[in-house]
Amino acid sequence: CLCARELTRYRLRVLLLEKEADVCSGASKANSGIVHACLSPKPGTNKATLCLAGNRLMEGVCDELGVPFRRTGALTVALHQREERVLRALLARGESNGEIGLGIVRGQALRELEPSLAPEATAALWAPSAGIVNPMLLTIAAAENAVQNGAEVLLGAELVGVMRGSSRVQGVVTTKGEFGCRFLVNAAGCHAGEVMAMAGATAVPVKPRRGDYYVLDKMELVRHVLFPIPTPVSKGILVTPTTDGNVLLGPTSVPSGEREEPPVDGEGLQMVWEQAQRMVHSIDMKKCISVFAGVRASGPRDFVIEASTEVPGLVNLVGIESPGVTASPAIARRVAAILAEEGVDLEPNPDFDPMRKAPPRVSELSPEERAELVERDRRYGRVVCRCEDVTEGEIVDAIRAPVPARTLEALKKRTRIMAGRCQGGFDLPLVVEILARELGIEPWEVTKSGPGSEVLVGNTRSEGTGELS
Questions:
Q1: Helix (H), strand (E) at residue 270
Q2: Is 155 in contact with 432 (CB distance < 8 Å)?
Q3: List of E strands, 321-419
Q4: Do the bridges between strand 74-78 and strand 123-127 make them parallel or antiparallel, or are there none, so unpaired?
Q5: Residues recognised as catalytic
Q6: Residue 108: predicted pLDDT
């Protein structure tokens, strides 16, 4: 989505194809939302270069798109003195990558920085440039801004083939028709290797890895993103605040046979719980309001971001795992540069507007601002989701947005309906009613996340008689 937005800076026709009923339905959805400091990537790699650049771009991008961002800083925690050598190695690597302000903190200074840490913590690497972002709103806002600047977004359009001429890409075949193109940017996450194969290129293997998470209720448990000592395959199970006030625990990192929505794993959740409690003893699992699992597109050791040498017109983004969200604004710029190298004329779009005004979030307004909004439109005075204080006006805004929310999941990502303590127990009937009314469909046609996920099966009363059917 950020690539599509970046390309609308120029006089280009841009089409974003999404096979699901909404953008941000894959790895971007099931994501920790961490804006990483550049500590782990090997210096000189795409991961290192783009992580550092993306971190520095992120705050400005979020300001333009109206997306919450907080530069909280992060602590990588050693629970034993023998683990401190890893902190020293990460410090040296981070400084080699260009990070500034790094330092190892101990004793009283560490306790003042993060009072919640377990007494066993001996030291931590402080990375002040780290932060948190809402990865779903970032993705959605980028897509909406792309549309506002002339791009098209086609939902429910699964790629089933790539059309080639005598030498290069000429178009794509989807479940919603064929579309000609001069260039195809392959940003298909866990399916990127399959897209390469469709186009006739040698596929880079992508091996999905599942991550299990706990979501805790809103609370002030930790001030910073807390990492354990990293493992060879993961940055470890973290404890982090979120921009919405909840606390996130996870993820695990295990090979998965599922490329889209893996089931939550009980053993994985137990591992998350045990590892998180090692860093923060005061975690109370009675505060858990939800669990979920997601997949990351694990590929080679480094991001693959390049024009195909086998198939002209194909640009591949493969293996964009962590720190993919952090790197995403810089990846978008890299894609534009690659297209220029491949012969695309990047003539500036004089009408490009980087600003996307976020729709009102009533829960964040002052009483005076709220009263003024209700005076203009009474739907902002009808609270639908009591846990998150979401109103009918906000739901209608999301349904009528440049990238419209047409499912329950799409509304949840944009407004946080059904994301609070009750997890939809109170607001679901009202949300179904509003969606059906706004979309002009029957309530039993409303879906959770697209066709096949309907939440109702039909009327309970026969038409005309009022009798139960």
A1: helix 266-279
A2: no
A3: 383-385, 390-391
A4: antiparallel
A5: 36
A6: 95
Determine if the pTM surpasses 0.70: yes
Q: Please confirm whether the linkage preceding 208 is cis (ω < 30° from 0).
A: no
- Alpha-carbon gap, residue 43 to 141, rounded angstroms: 31
Where would I find the H helices in 97-221? 107-113, 135-148, 192-199
d(CA 11, CA 14): 9
- Three-state DSSP state, 44: coil
| Residue 127 β-bridge partners | 74
* Nearest CA-CA partner of 318 in 343, 335, 337: 335
Angle between helices 428-439 and 392-399 (to 10 degrees): 40
Please count the other Cβ atoms lying within 10 Å of the Cβ belonging to residue 84: 18
Give the separation between CA 149 and CA 10, rounded to whole angstroms: 10
Q: How far is CA 419 from CA 117, 245, 269, in A?
A: 27, 12, 19
Q: What is the pLDDT of residues 154-165, one digit of tens each?
A: 999 999 999 998
- Measured from the Cβ of residue 310, the count of other Cβ atoms closer than 10 Å reads 10
CB atoms near residue 138 (< 10 Å) = 27
**Helical (H) or strand (E) element with 306:** strand 304-307
Amino acid present at 34: I
Half-sphere exposure at residue 132, Cβ-oriented, CA atoms within 13 angstroms: 22
Which is it for the CA torsion 79, 83, 87, 88, positive or negative?
A: positive
pLDDT at position 259 is 86
